[in-house]
């Protein structure tokens, strides 16, 4: 092949490469332009304005319900148990009869002391009469000084005997009263420890009474909450709410702070707290485990947004804020406390009234244009003209590619 034909072939090949390159890059440019057009379409998102409200700040803990008083009722004298006069589980009042022990032996001791007293009273009366007669002027000259002193001492002796009988009678009376076992406090009667007919002693347990009006709740808080709790206590009554274990339903909402323990545990870094609840409806029961929520303070005019608006990034928490031109920007925020199950308080980085995106954030980037929708609102269906325009654009993009998606 001559040199001329070689040069001609090289020129033709160069032209073919240039044409192919122009078509290839032209198709990519048009596809990129189409993609860019798609990206600039407004993104439908749900938008909510930040609001302000007074936000209560709580400390939470796991608590144990404890009876105000617990008394185990034991007999103070021994004997046969004649009757049980309460129902297990019933509420009893202070002084109410619970059980009765056979009183006959103690009644006999009381009667014996009373008889001895009457006997000594008779001897005392005789001794006094003899002494008074001997000490009169008409008889004193016939009675020796020794006999007169003896009669006086005999009167004193019988007076002592009568006093001893009185003491014996009071002791017997006290023992006799112990045969009637009464409730020492108001409370709920538990399961009885003995049955009627058994012989009981002072070590026998009749029943345990628990006082639950009011009732105590014991719980521990971390030491970082101590200062806030003490400040709340100094400001007035501290509100304490008892919740069930799911935190869904309040069991009792009228608790008050009773005692803050005087030391912090070096092992756990916590301190003990006791709350008191009136418990008029018996909603709390001794030994029950509950969740406790203590109100420490209230943030006045706190900025509140839905919890799903706050996103987490490598530099901290942020939200997408919708600007006046319906574009979004990334705003770094600092979360405060949880307001309820669906809202959080924003400590800094956001102002009341600013609109934040709560749904659709995954399709956003800074500067993206959005179609702001209210919660529960859906985007409007495209019009017929919009559908035709979109179809025409798709047809134009498809016509610029050959079979298999490559350039014609």
Uncertain spans, ≥5 residues at pLDDT below 50?
25-39, 402-408
In total, the number of domains comes to: 3
Question: What portion of residues belong to β-strands?
Answer: 35-45%
Shape category: rod-shaped
Largest sheet: 6 strands, mixed
Helix-strand makeup class = alpha+beta
Q: How many H/I helical runs?
A: 6
Assigned CATH architecture of the largest domain: Beta Barrel
The CATH topology of the largest domain comes to OB fold (Dihydrolipoamide Acetyltransferase, E2P)
SSE topology string: HEEEEEHHHEEEEHEEEEEEEEEEEH
Return the average pLDDT rounded to an integer. 85
Helix content: 25-40%
Distance between the termini: 33 Å
User: CATH H level of the largest domain: which superfamily?
Assistant: RNA polymerase II/Efflux pump adaptor protein, barrel-sandwich hybrid domain
Q: What topology does this entry show?
A:
Layout: H1 3-39, E1 43-49, E2 51-73, E3 79-84, E4 91-92, E5 97-101, H2 104-134, H3 137-140, H4 145-177, E6 180-182, E7 187-189, E8 199-200, E9 207-222, H5 226-235, E10 239-243, E11 250-264, E12 270-277, E13 289-306, E14 311-313, E15 316-322, E16 328-332, E17 334-338, E18 343-348, E19 355-359, E20 370-373, H6 384-399
Parallel strand pairs: 1-20
Antiparallel strand pairs: 1-19, 2-9, 2-13, 3-5, 3-8, 4-7, 5-6, 7-9, 9-12, 10-11, 10-13, 11-12, 13-18, 14-15, 15-16, 15-19, 17-18
Helix pairs in contact: 2-4
């Amino acid at each position: 092949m001559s040199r001329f034909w070689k040069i001609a072939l090289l020129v033709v090949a160069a032209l073919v490469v240039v044409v192919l390159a122009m078509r290839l890059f032209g198709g990519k440019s048009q596809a990129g332009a189409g993609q860019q057009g798609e990206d600039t379409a407004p993104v439908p998102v749900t938008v909510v304005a930040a609001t302000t409200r007074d936000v209560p700040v709580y400390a939470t803990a796991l608590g144990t319900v404890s009876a105000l008083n617990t008394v185990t009722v034991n007999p103070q004298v021994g004997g046969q148990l004649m009757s049980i006069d309460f129902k297990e589980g019933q509420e009893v009042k202070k002084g109410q009869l619970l059980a009765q022990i056979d009183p006959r032996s103690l009644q006999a001791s009381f009667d014996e002391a009373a008889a001895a007293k009457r006997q000594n009273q008779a001897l005392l009366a005789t001794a006094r009469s003899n002494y008074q007669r001997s000490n009169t002027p008409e008889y004193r000259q016939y009675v020796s000084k020794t006999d007169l002193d003896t009669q006086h001492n005999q009167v004193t002796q019988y007076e002592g005997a009568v006093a001893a009988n009185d003491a014996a009678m009071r002791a017997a009376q006290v023992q006799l009263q112990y045969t009637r076992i009464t409730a020492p406090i108001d409370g709920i009667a538990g399961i009885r420890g003995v049955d009627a007919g058994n012989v009981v002693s002072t070590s026998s347990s009749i029943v345990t009474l628990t006082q639950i009006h009011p009732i105590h709740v014991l719980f521990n808080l971390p030491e970082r909450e101590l200062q806030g709790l003490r400040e709340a206590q100094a400001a007035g009554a501290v509100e304490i709410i008892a919740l069930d274990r799911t935190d869904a339903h309040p069991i009792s909402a009228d608790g008050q702070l009773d005692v803050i323990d005087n030391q912090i545990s070096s092992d756990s870094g916590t301190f003990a707290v006791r709350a008191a609840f009136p418990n008029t409806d018996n909603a709390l029961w001794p030994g029950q485990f509950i969740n406790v929520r203590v109100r420490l303070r209230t943030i006045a005019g706190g900025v509140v947004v839905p919890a799903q608006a706050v996103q987490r990034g490598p530099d901290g928490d942020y939200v997408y804020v919708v600007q006046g031109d319906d574009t979004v920007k990334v705003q770094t925020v600092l979360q405060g406390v949880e307001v309820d199950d669906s809202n959080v308080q924003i400590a800094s980085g956001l102002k009341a009234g600013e609109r934040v995106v709560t749904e659709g954030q995954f399709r956003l980037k800074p500067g993206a244009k959005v179609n702001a929708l209210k919660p529960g609102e859906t985007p409007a269906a495209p019009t017929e003209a919009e559908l035709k325009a979109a179809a025409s654009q798709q047809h134009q993009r498809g016509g610029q590619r050959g079979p298999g998606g490559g350039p014609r």
